Amino acid sequence: MGWFKHWFGTRYYSLLYGHRDVEDARQWVKAILEHWQLPGGARILDLACGRGRHAYFFAEAGLQVTGVDISEASITEAKELVPHAEFAVHDMRQAFRPGTFDAVCCLFTSLGYFDDLEDDHAVFRAVWTALKPGGRFVLDFMNTGPVLRDLVTEERVSKEGVDFKLRRSCEHGVLVKCITVKDGDEVHHFEERVQALGPDQLETMAREAGFEVEDRTDGPELTPFDPINSQRFVLWMRKPDR
Predict the structure, then answer these.
(1) What pLDDT was estimated at residue 232?
(2) Do 194 and 227 form a contact (C-beta atoms < 8 A)?
(3) What is the pLDDT, as a whole number, of residue 20?
């Protein structure tokens, strides 16, 4: 199932990315609700939902929340965090409950994990299928240009007595992060591989799936997207009514 199947559900993943905190999730949900003006009771699909930190605030705002993720461990934790939402282990490349949702979100660069770009196209098609006519889709991705320009090739991080060594590179259009974890006497090795998809590529995938592009912003502050300086590329899309 790829590197993500073995890495996302681990304690070390949670520890390394713990700075993606509650306040960050609250800001994202607030921005999405304000941008779309979703009514209470709207059905939203949190795609690649992880441990449910965004789902928590969507549910708190009165939305009917469904979260899906490939990691069984993450889904187990999400169910504990948001017991009144619905969660399922699911591959985002496959359609989930066609015509059910008013909105879909995919946050924190949760696309581009596959070796074949056709799989990323499949994600857009699956989202299209899951949405009702007129439904919205927001995709949060890194702004690849500045990320490559400012790439930190080596970094060391310590969290709660665990040491992480991170080595970053770009290989044939794929951003690779090699992660060495030293936890006491134990040493573990993980890897992240993300296609260095640019804004134009993502927009092409969106349009080929049938979406209308409504907006492009940085995030989660939702300032206008700047190709040179924005750290995030947030693409706002709509499935036409017919």
Answers:
(1) 96
(2) no
(3) 60
The pLDDT tens digits of the residues spanning 141-175 come to 999 999 999 999 999 999 999 999 999 999 999 99
Q: For residue 5, what pLDDT band results from cuts at 50, 70 and 90?
A: low
Assign 3 a pLDDT band (cuts: 50, 70, 90). low
Write out the chain in H/E/C secondary structure: CCHHHHHCCCHHHHHHCCCCCHHHHHHHHHHHHHHHCCCCCCEEEEECCCCCHHHHHHHHCCCEEEEEECCHHHHHHHHHHCCCCEEEECCCCCCCCCCCEEEEEECCCCCCCCCCHHHHHHHHHHHHHHEEEEEEEEEEEECHHHHHHCCCCEEEEEECCEEEEEEEEEECCEEEEEEEEEECCEEEEEEEEEECCCHHHHHHHHHHHCCEEEEEECCCCCCECCCCCCCEEEEEEECCCC
Distance CA 140, CA 127 (A): 14
Alpha-carbon distance of 142 to 108, in angstroms, equals 8
* Model pLDDT, residue 1: 46
Hey, what domains does the chain have and what are their CATH numbers? 3-145+197-238 (3.40.50.150), 147-193 (2.20.25)
| Higher local confidence (pLDDT), 1 or 66 | 66
Query: What's the rounded Cα separation, in Å, for the pair 56 and 15?
Result: 19
